[in-house]
Write a structure and sequence with these properties.
Elements lengths: L2 E5 L4 H10 L10 E5 L2 E8 L6 E2 L2 E2 L1 E2 L10 H10 L2 H4 L7 E3 L2 E4 L9 H11 L5 E9 L4 E8 L4 E6 L2 E6 L10 H7 L7 E4 L8 H7 L4 E6 L2 H13 L6 E5 L2 H4 L7 E4 L9 H7 L5 E10 L6 H12 L4 E13 L2 E10 L1
Parallel strand pairs: 8-9, 13-14, 13-16, 14-15, 16-17
Antiparallel strand pairs: 1-3, 1-6, 2-3, 4-5, 7-8, 9-10, 11-12, 17-19, 18-19
The structure holds S-adenosylmethionine (SAM).
């Protein structure tokens, strides 16, 4: 378990010094800034020797910890194995999903990839496999990945009280969407919800576990993801809430039924706006519309697309909120727009 306390930013330096003096600062992980609906916080990583409560702050489990790229062991390892020129390419971070480490290793370090994998495994002793990441492709969001060490690529990732079983070489899981998954876990209480791009249950599972809507219809077109969606429904005991449907959401959404529609897919999400609006109850409902958009258009283009789709169905729109989820690529943001359509 990776332990932390979450504290107000102004207490950061004082707490860091106390943790260093008390020898319970975990120096393998970064002190991380986070922002959620309750405000901005610092997460201070703690070793197992820290008490359960530190200076009135409850110790909690950290999700998706950020490890230092240059802790002492790592630095020693780098010096011993890489030339000055190669050092510029050595990965400066990695992701853990369940007990699997996922890391990008550039082509120039091809001959050293196993050495890097071994070093990462020794740095993260709870992990069992190391997988090299080459990115995500196409409509089905298929990851291109290579198993470097270990024998398993299937794992159960625990996050925010939910279990996400997945094969990391077959389905994607975006660490950057963590706050949005948590936000969705607070929505939908007592409602009828349609998740048009359900994947393995990224949004449906936390919403079902924490908010307990009346019903969530989760639609997924990729069979590998769909199979994990079905498993995750069982694993999280939400079979009484989520009804999984295998297929294309442009054909299978139950029209006129939903209080809320989730559109957690980027690429050509606007193509599906008409169907999403038809899926809402005729009296109206909420859309969570995702889009990747150049930074300077993030406050106009997605909102205009929603308005245009609604107008063509003779509906009105109230834009409730636009949130930036993450930087998608240089100059491009992944945003989500909450809109009431009626
Ligand atoms: C990228 S995932 C969602 C990721 C999620 N936002 C997260 O938190 O990581 C989107 C899913 O939509 C599915 N998908 C794409 N087009 C679809 C369609 N027309 N109907 C149903 N599912 C679709 C993909 O297979 C993929 O599993």
């Amino acid at each position: 378990m990776y332990r932390i306390i979450r504290i107000p930013p102004e207490k950061g330096e004082e707490m860091r010094k106390k943790a260093v003096a008390g020898k319970f600062l975990d120096t393998a992980r970064k002190i991380r800034k986070i922002k959620n609906d309750e405000g901005s916080f610092l997460e201070i990583p703690l070793t197992n020797s820290a008490d359960e409560i530190v200076e009135d702050f409850q110790v909690i489990e950290q999700e998706n910890p950020d490890f230092f790229d240059k802790s002492f062991i790592w630095e020693e390892f780098l010096k011993n194995h890489f030339s000055e020129a190669e050092l510029a390419y050595v990965p400066s971070g990695w992701q853990t999903l369940g007990d699997i480490i996922i890391v990008r290793i550039p082509e120039v370090l091809e001959d050293n990839k196993l050495r890097i994998a071994e070093a990462l495994l020794s740095k993260c002793p709870n992990c069992k496999s190391v997988v090299r990441d080459f990115g995500i492709e196409g409509q089905f969001r298929l990851p291109k990945r290579e198993l470097l060490l270990g024998s398993r690529t299937e794992t159960v990732h625990k996050e925010h009280g939910c279990f996400f079983k997945q094969d990391v070489t077959k389905v994607m899981y975006s660490k950057g969407n963590l706050e949005e998954r948590k936000r969705m876990s607070r929505m939908g209480k007592g409602e009828v919800v349609v998740d048009m791009f359900a994947g393995i249950g990224y949004f449906s599972i936390p919403m079902a576990v924490h908010s307990r809507p009346k019903k969530i219809t989760g639609i997924e077109i990729n069979f590998e993801s769909f199979a994990y969606l079905e498993e995750n429904i069982k694993l999280n005991r939400v079979g009484n809430i989520i009804v999984p449907i295998f297929g294309d959401c442009s054909k299978f959404t139950p029209e006129g039924t939903a209080d809320r529609v989730l559109m957690g897919y980027v690429g050509n999400t606007d193509y599906y706006l008409g169907q999403a609006i038809k899926t809402l109850k005729s009296s109206g409902g909420i859309l969570h519309y995702h889009e990747t958009v150049p930074e300077n258009l993030s406050r106009t283009r997605p909102q205009e697309r929603i308005r245009k789709a609604a107008e063509s169905l003779e509906k009105k729109v109230e834009i409730l909120e636009t949130r930036s989820i993450k930087k998608y690529s240089p100059g491009i943001l992944h945003v989500v727009v909450d809109a009431r359509v009626f």
